[in-house]
UniProtKB/TrEMBL annotation:
SUPFAM superfamilies: WD40 repeat-like. Keywords: Repeat, Repressor, Transcription, Transcription regulation, WD repeat. Residues 18-86 form the Transcriptional repressor Tup1 N-terminal domain. PROSITE patterns: WD_REPEATS_1, WD_REPEATS_2, WD_REPEATS_REGION. WD repeats lie at residues 341-375, 376-417, 417-458, 462-495, 516-557, 558-595. This is WD40 repeat-like protein. Coiled coil: none annotated. Residues 141-150, 185-194 have a biased composition (Low complexity). Residues 151-173 have a biased composition (Pro residues).
């Protein structure tokens, strides 16, 4: 039979068979890919599980390491305290090894970081710790009441090789000066401050400021470097022709100084720089006893009153009589535990006193009624510094929570918050109220426009501080700024940058025009006299120094406290200044032209 499709290709049945064959091939390939994908997913899941296991092991090892480190640090602190209680010197060089670096061998100063509060505990106690500013747990003090536990300075300069025979020790025993030759000796290292150990973390250099403690003075052992110590009042040996005292007045032998270069009283003395003309005289006016560490001092704007901050209260004294006028204490606060007032400042009209404390609150007191006018909450860590603007309504505050805040007492609210990378230790408002400055643990000083919040200066760099900045103050002209640091120096800055910057293009024109060196330990407080003629500084070396801002020379060094000088404040009316210390005393001093 004839077939019309012959020779024209496969029949329909053959086409279906070919299509099925192709579909089977695709199905098989799909199944192969599906199996491969399943195998890959299974492999990935195994890798993820293995990574998670590794992560958990690393985390467990990290936690173990941190626990061991904390245990190790606590043991070191315990051994330090035991050594201190026996009259030893933890800061001395190790036998059989190189001298330790005071910045690491002694408990390091605090870093506010991201942790809890209490910067002040670390300044004063400085135990090797973990993030935040919490002080170490309280320890019993075998020598006396609680005192400032800041890391102590290195041993004092050596005693003279020759000189008058040892005399009977006088009642006052300041440290840092030759001991056996003149009867002065060095107090021992102080132990850590009281206060709870709050939420200590992991990323910190050390705890925050504690509170000073007062021990009985114990002389240091003789210093082997004594043979190399030139004596003031005698020719310097020819083999050291380059030796100059400079600003290191602690190197001088008090006994050998001529009368016009020193002033020695019953429980204080002053040394005047022999290398510059003496143009000042100082006298003690009042000693204001307290029951705890005096963390801060501040005069009223008319110079008639001085306020102090201590544990749980602020106190106001009459400058002329030395009489206590009032005690400002919030009775609603739980009476258990410590609550140190870290900063105080008067309003320009003298009606109000602002206080900043460890409980993160700012209280503005009506002095006449002894009542709280405003309570400002918002800071997340301890408040370390306050300043009252001359407009009478704006208060600046600095806290360990890494912020500077401006508050309006009339509106009763926070009007500006400025955040930085590290904890804020100190704030100051310029005399014209246009700018606010702050010092930080990151070694920088920042200046902002107080209205817009724009950063107009950041003072740092090669000429800047090498350690945390703990105090800043504007000069009376409003164009200069001084800062004090844990690097033991004071710096004066000229604020030359154009005003009114932009946050993304902040000018950095401020420059360091003078560095003041001479303190033997942390500089904790700086200020300028109202005429701008003198820079004052207080230090953990227990000394107060007057500096000439034009030359950088120190005019005098005053030793009148038995522990760290935490705060210095000149009177706005001139002629007097106040000091607050870990020895539980504030003192009012006078200064005047000499002779």
């Amino acid at each position: 039979m004839y077939n019309p499709h012959r020779g024209l290709g496969p029949t329909p049945g053959g086409a279906n068979a070919r299509l099925n064959e192709l579909l089977d091939g695709i199905r098989a390939e799909f199944e192969n890919q599906a199996r491969a994908s399943s195998d890959y997913e299974h492999s990935m899941a195994q890798q993820i599980n293995e990574m998670q296991m590794v992560r958990e092991k690393v985390y467990a090892m990290e936690q173990t390491h941190l626990a061991l480190k904390q245990k190790y640090d606590e043991e070191i602190s315990r051994l330090h305290r035991e050594l201190e209680s026996r009259g030893g010197n933890p800061g001395a060089p190790r036998i059989g090894g190189p001298p330790q670096n005071p910045a690491t061998s002694q408990q390091a100063p605090p870093s506010i970081g991201l942790g809890p509060s209490n910067l002040f505990g670390g300044i004063m106690a400085g135990s090797n710790g973990t993030p935040g500013l919490a002080p170490p747990p309280p320890q019993p003090d075998q020598h006396g009441p609680p005192q400032h536990g800041m890391p102590q300075p290195p041993p004092p300069p050596p005693p003279p090789l020759q000189g008058p025979p040892p005399q009977q020790q006088p009642p006052f025993q300041p440290g840092g000066y030759p001991g056996p030759a003149n009867g002065y000796s060095q107090p021992p290292q102080s132990s850590s401050s009281p206060g709870p150990n709050k939420n200590r973390g992991v990323l910190n250099r050390g705890p925050g400021p504690a509170t000073p403690q007062l021990n009985q003075p114990i002389p240091y052992p003789p210093d082997p470097r004594a043979a190399a110590s030139p004596q003031v009042g005698h020719p310097v040996p020819n083999q050291h022709p380059q030796f100059r005292v400079g600003n290191a007045l602690a190197e001088l032998d008090l006994e050998r100084l001529p009368g016009h270069q020193k002033k020695v009283e019953n429980d204080w003395f002053a040394i005047f720089n022999p290398e510059v003309p003496r143009v000042l005289d100082v006298d003690l006016v009042h000693t204001l006893q307290h029951e705890s560490v005096v963390c801060c001092v501040r005069f009223s704007h008319d110079g008639k009153y001085v306020a102090t901050g201590c544990n749980r209260s602020a106190q106001i004294f009459d400058v002329v009589t030395g009489q206590k006028i009032c005690i400002l204490q919030d009775e609603s606060v739980d009476a258990v535990g410590d609550l140190y007032i870290r900063s105080v400042c008067f309003s320009p009209d003298g009606r109000y006193l602002a206080t900043g404390a460890e409980d993160k609150l700012i209280r503005v007191w009506d002095i006449a009624s002894r009542s709280i006018r405003n309570t400002f909450a918002g800071h997340e860590q301890d408040i370390y510094s306050l300043d009252f603007a001359r407009d009478g309504r704006t208060i600046a505050s600095g806290s360990g929570d890494r912020t500077v805040r401006l508050w309006d007492i009339d509106a009763g609210q926070n009007v500006l918050t400025l955040s930085i990378e590290d904890g804020v230790t100190t704030v100051a408002i310029s005399p014209d109220t246009k700018y606010v400055a702050a010092g930080s643990l990151d070694k920088s000083v920042r200046v902002w426009d107080a209205t817009s919040g724009y950063l107009v200066e950041r003072l740092e760099g090669p000429d800047g501080h090498k350690d945390s900045v703990y105090s800043v103050a504007f000069a009376p002209n409003g164009k200069d700024l001084v800062s004090g640091s844990l690097d033991k120096t004071i710096k004066m800055w000229e604020l030359v940058a154009p005003r009114g910057g932009h946050p993304n293009n902040a000018p950095k024109g401020g420059r360091c025009i003078k560095t003041f060196e001479g303190h033997k330990d942390f500089v904790l407080s700086v200020a300028l006299t109202p005429d701008g003629n003198w820079v004052l500084s207080g230090s953990k070396d227990r000394g107060v120094q007057f500096w000439d801002p034009r030359t950088g020379n120190t005019q005098l060094m005053l030793q009148g406290h038995k522990n760290s000088v935490i705060s210095v404040a000149p009177s706005p009316s001139g002629g007097s200044f106040a000091t607050g210390s870990g020895d539980m005393r504030a003192r009012i001093w006078s200064y005047k032209p000499y002779p």
